[in-house]
Amino acid sequence: xxxxxxxxxxxxxxxxxxxxxxxxxxxxxxxxxxxxxxxxxxxxxxxxxxxxxxxxxxxxxxxxxxxxxxxxxxxxxxxxxxxxxxxxxxxxxxxxxxxxxxxxxxxxxxxxxxxxxxxxxxx
Length: 123
Known about the structure:
The protein is α+β, with helices and mostly antiparallel strands and 123 residues long. Helices cover 20% and strands 20% of the residues. It has helices spanning 27-33, 69-77, 83-91, and strands at 2-7, 15-19, 51-56, 98-100, 111-114. A 5-stranded mixed β-sheet has the order 2-1-5-3-4, covered by helices on one side. The longest helix has 9 residues, at 69-77. 33% of the residues are buried. The mean pLDDT is 89.
């Protein structure tokens, strides 16, 4: 099981929820299920409205799903990731700090998810 802690100015306090390891639901679905006000529009990785920062809270190796093609293009166009960041993520299998909630699938790792509450804007 993974602990996912959501942090946003929209919320009175941080909220930690449990995500089942091996579940194929996106972080956006986990947020919706737990009534977390994470903004979204297209749910397809093209608009960038659900951008968030993911901070890994464990010392164990990161296991997050690789960036999808849509996620790479959207985060690059939005200026959240550089071509170098994407190259590092691909070559070193190291997930970058900015992800799209509609594309990111939670693995068996504890993470802090920070989002501003404004579509496409990170904290």
